[in-house]
Structures are given as structure tokens and as C-alpha cells.
Amino acid sequence: MDTAKKPKIEAIFPLTNMQQGLLFHYLSASHDQGFLHVQCSLKGFLNTSLLEKAWEHTIKRHQVLRTTVHWKNIEKPVQLVHPEKSMNWRYLDWKTYSKEKKEEELSKLKATDREAGTDFEQGPLLNITLIEMEKDVFCLLWPCHHLLLDGWSSNNILKDVFAYYQAFSEDKAPVLEALPSYKSYLNWTKTHDSSEAREFWEKTFSGFGQANLFDKRESKTEIKDAISDEIQLSEEDTNKLYSLARQLKITPNSLIQGLWTLLLSRYFESEDITYGTTVSGRSANFPNIELLSGMFMNVQAVRILINGNDTVSGWLKTIQDQQQQARKHEHITMDEVMSWIDRPAALPLFDSLLIFENFPWEDSQGGELEISDFKSGLTSTYPLTLVVVPGKHTKFKLLTFSEIIKPSSVKWFLKELTTLLHALAADKDLTLEGLSQKAEAPQKEVLKEKKTRSAVSSKNYVAPRNKLELQLLEVWEDLFGARSIGIHDNFFEIGGKSLLAVKMFSVIEKKINIKLAPTTLLEHPTIASIAEFISKGEQEENSWKYLVPIRAGGSKTPLFCIHAGGGHVFFYNLLPSHLDAERPVYAVQPSGIDGREYAHTSIEEMTSDYLTEMKSIQHKGPYNIMVYCFSTAIGIEMVRQLEKLGEKANLIVIDTMAEQESLMTITRIKMRLLTLSKRMIKTPFKALGMMFTDRYNRYVKPLITTLFGNKYERDLQQLKANLVTIYKKYEWKDFNDQVSLILTEKDDPIMNREFIRSWKRLALKGVNTLYSEGSHRTLFEEPDVKFVGERIENCIEESR
């Protein structure tokens, strides 16, 4: 006798990106947008025992009904298929209730189910309520969730239930078509060639600039359920819609899609319209995919261009042709599309949705039962969703979030949709401009997306402190299409959404080779907290001592800004905004700035340590090195050490002479005296003030700090003194390269000539001299920093 036990788990499958996004939303939002009720009406004699038996067989047939979802204490969430599961039944008798009472109780019941939520870890699709509304009239209510089931699938499952029920009622063996394997489908998606899809989407979004979006900035509260408004066409108008589609030789879907596009065009005052549309995901060339149940539904981007002089009829045919091409690629995710068209994941292509309810449901008979009024429920996370429900009386349902879309706009969309339908039916030869103008002017809640990468506003910006935080920052900046993100900025507060979170952790795994579940973000919503979470248990110390990322992201070679004599690098913070947006910028600060680290004893030792960290960011040259004031010696030593390693450096000197401490030569004494006399004649009080300030900072302030300063001030003063000491000890030698020297106009032209001469003596390949507006002391402040940034960028580009 075979006593082998059945396995506890039949299969383990990963969650798709969309499923992970829905799970993340389920865990992070107080209001679950993925929850829905599937329901239908049953009329006639009902054998509840046979109905339960029919469900038992359907549960065995469809793996998704035996599936649970798990995410705790594992790297990535998974769905587990169990060999056995059973349905939980609840029977209610409302026969004696009035019609109003039934509607009230049904609403309460749905609200209670929603509040209870979905138990993904036990049996998320295994609860059914059967309500007897009248004698032999029942309402079947089935709570579901989009994470596991789309509308097409719930329809498939109910059809199988009642096919089994009919067979059992007639005492026959059920005969249903064999289902394909979900595992085989997953393997097919991995091996399917996506080159054709990529070519289609790249062509579709070629030249795309900005998306037209609704303005969400006024929404201060959490968005809850969408508000539903609708209009129902008369039978005459419905017939008119279908007749018009036949005359134009297009489908009713293409006709409605065109009218909706024109409304959005009028609303946004744009000739380039994008929105999303739901697709079943069952157009793929995979055998019998239409029979599979699960979450196959996808959201597909639609982009339609409008030329007002084109005829409506020809334009509608173009829309239909485009959508027929798009249907071939229903299984392609938006993540893939966004990567192909090189668009940051956080910059949406659209924020409105168009849904055609086209599930293959037909009212049917099962034994003595009549099954009708199938409803799969509708959910949407978009501010505006148009749902088209075909039938004898076609319905247009508009789901909106009142926090974003005003009631006046809702009325406008519904009213003008029928206006355009009637106008086109009256004159099929209208141009697009002619038809569009038939609609009244709208009131708007529009947010124009900026074409350039935005800068996330961070009130308390903190730069990355180590390599891991820098790597995470680069991921965030690419996804958000933004700069100036700080390590303590909250992912959700700067615009992060559930699908973006899934994308982010996928990129982290690919680029950093670290696997994390997207749910990690719920407890660790900042770069700093994610990095700390990752670093727990790691022995390798990856903190930087010297590098300070001012702008970490970008595709071009970085600019390394060496500290001046004061040690600090904060004054460089305005510079990145005046360089190429793709240019990373790092400041280099000295060891010992916190009073704890070891202070270097020579320029050579300091340079070697700086280069070690710089090479961890940029593995090969040329290295763009900018020096200012007392960092000139470090710049020269970097060029010399890189040259020994076979690497090239691009040294950029900002308004500073070489060997700055060598002031006692005859030429420099004359230069200083002449400059001072000219300043005294031109602006005597300003000249005296500058002279006094210089002497005070050089001789008096250090003494005061030593006697009365706090620990931080004493540590900083000690650091400055050490920098001057090792600067004086440095042996200046020539080097076999060129220097770019950016100068400001001086009161005495002798000064700039001396600056140039000092560098020509060292740079054997010459000095490339550029001039910038401003003065030496304010070069990194507005507005002077703008001109300095332009000159620096010129130097880098010319050196390539």
C-alpha cells in the first residue's frame, strides 16, 4: 500500500513586477486599491451541495485558487501553490428584507469585507458569500484581489464552476478543455524574443518630450476610493455608435479611443497625447493562454499625435492600426518600455487610464440555474479612469479621485464625450480641429512636466558618506530623474510609488548585486536606512574619509574639487548646477577635519590616499581635478602620481598662482606693493578693510581660537595649520602635461601675468588660460559661480 504523503507545496513561482507593486501597495497604503468583489446573480433551483462540489473541482483545476503569497523573512516575495485548499462558505437569507434594506446590507457587507482585507498567507481567494435575495434568487459574492486575479480570470473560473455544476446536475462526467501550465508560460516569457517589441516602442515614443499630467500638488490627504460617475447611452445612441464605427470601417473601441484622445487633447491643449489602456495579456502567441487564470492583465501605454488638418476618418484608422500592432506585445511590462525609451521610471508617461470591459462573459444556464449579471469589480490607482461597458445601453463610467479631479471636470468629460459622438455622427468628414472645437472649453487641473531632469527639493540635504550610499543614490537619481536627493530623503515623500519601489530593488540587485525585497522600503524608506540595513553584519568598512559627493549621478567623467586651505568644501555646493547635468561632482576634504582622524604629514602621502578613493569611483582616466588656493600643490602631485600609473589628468586651476607661499621674490614683492597702492587710491577703505581682515585671519584669529575656541574650532584651526606646514614642505617640480588656468580680471594686469608665468614654469606642455567674471573671493557664489562653471565645463570638453 502506498503511504507516501503528498508534498506540502506543489509549486513556487516568483511575483511579476506588477504583482510586487500591488503587494507593496497592499502593505504600505491604508486603503488597498487592489481589493475587489466579483459577483453574479443565480436564478432558479440551487443545489448548494453540488455548487460546493463544483467549486472543489474548480479549485483543483486552477492553481491560482490554491495559491498563497509570502514575503516575510525572505529575499523576494513568492507565490506558493498548495496541493489542496477548500472554500470557506457563508450563507445569508435576506428574503424578507425590503429592496432598500438589501442594498444597504450588501453595501455594509462589502465594506466589512474590504475592512477585513485579504489574507494572502492563508487563502486569499477562498471566501464566498451566498445570499438568498428572494425565493430561488441568489447573489454570489466573491472577494478577490488583483494581485492574483484579473477580470478575465475571474470570468474563466466562474464559467468553469457552472460547467462543473451543470455536469453534476445532469449526473455526467465534466468535460473541460485542458489548461496549459503556468510554469510553461513563465518559461516562454523568458525565451521569447523581445526585439520586435523594443523596435515598436522605440518608434512609438521617438521624439517624445513631456507628458501631460493632472496636478496632484493640491492633494494634501491620502487618496482613498475613486468616485464613480457614469452616463448611459440610449439604445438609439448605442446603435448610432456601432453604426458609425461600421461606416468608418473601424471597431467601436477605436472610435471611442479616438474621441477620448481628442478630449484629452482639448483639456491639455496638446497635440501629443498619452494615456494607459488595460489589455488582457492574452494576445501572446502561447497556446490556450486565454484559459489560464491569474494576473495576466497589463497596462499598455498609448501615444497618439493630433494634426488638426487631418480628417477624423483617416486618423481613426491610424489609431486602430497602431493598437493592432501594440496588441502583439501585451505581455511586455512598462518597466521594459521605460528602459527602452530611456525614460526615468519616476517620470510617468501618463496618469489616466482607458478600460474597455471586454471579458468573454455570456449569461448561461447551469442545470436549472440561470447565471447572469457578472461583475468583476473595478479598481484604479490613476486620477482619471474611463471605463467603457458595452451592451444594449453602452455605459461610460468615470472613476476619479476627488482630491485631484474637480467635479466640474468630471461633468465636462462625460458630457463632451457624447457631444463629440453626436457631432461626428452628423458629419463624418470633419477634420480633427473641426471635431475638437465642438467640445466646450474645459476647466483644468493640469501639471506640465518639466522637460529637463528635476531637482528634488531637500530641505536638509545630506550627501552620501560611503560607497554603498553613493551607489544607492545613483539608483535613486536615475529612477527619479532628479538630482540633489539626500540620503535622509523619504522615498514616498519625494514621489515614490509602489511600482517604482519594485523597479528600484530590481536595479539595486542588478547594479550592486544585493537582493532585497521591495517591502524592505516600508521600514527603511531612506538611502541611509537602506544602506545601514544592508551593512548589518558586513565586516568590510566602506566609509570614505575624503570624498564628499555633491552630485553623485551622471554619465560623464566626474569633477574632483580639492579642498582649499581652510579644509572645508561646502563652498563648492553651488557649482554642480552650472555644469553639465550629467557631470558627477565630488569634493575632496582633508583627513582630520573631525578632530579624530589621522592628519597627513606630507602632500605626497595625502595625494596618494585621495587618489585611492577617487579611483574607487572612477577606475580609469582622464581625471578632472580642480584646485583652488592652497590645494595647488595637491593638484600637481596628483598629476605626477597619475602619470606614473600611466593615467592622464586634466588639471584645472582656479585663479591661483603656483607656489603661493613663495611671496618674497622681487617680482612678487613689487606686484603686491603696486596692487596695494592702486587699491588704496581707488577704494582706500575697502583696501584697508581687506588688509585688516587678512591679517586678522592669518595671525589674530588662530590665537583667539587656541585660547577661547570650542573643540570644533580648535580642531579646525589645527587642521589649517597642518595644511600650511605640509604645503611649505612640498618640493615643487615640473610635470609633463598642460594646465587650464581660469583667471579673474585684476586691478593690476601684472598679477595675472605673474599667475600665468608661475604655471608655465611647471607645466611643460603649456598653460591654457581662460577668463571669468567675478572676483577671487566670490568665484563660487552667485552670480560668479555661473561663469566659473561654464569655463570649467569648457576646459573638460576641450581636454577630451
TrEMBL record:
Any one GO MF annotation of this record: catalytic activity
Cofactor: pantetheine 4'-phosphate
Keyword Phosphoprotein: yes
Domain Carrier stretches: 463-538
GO cellular component, one term: cytosol
Any one Pfam family match given in the protein's UniProt record, by short name: PP-binding
Keyword annotations: Phosphopantetheine, Phosphoprotein
Database matches in PROSITE patterns: CARRIER
The keyword Hydrolase appears for this protein: no
A single BP term in Gene Ontology: secondary metabolite biosynthetic process
Domain of life: Bacteria
PANTHER family tied to this protein: FATTY ACID SYNTHASE (PTHR45527:SF1), NONRIBOSOMAL PEPTIDE SYNTHETASE (PTHR45527)
Protein name per its UniProtKB record: Carrier domain-containing protein
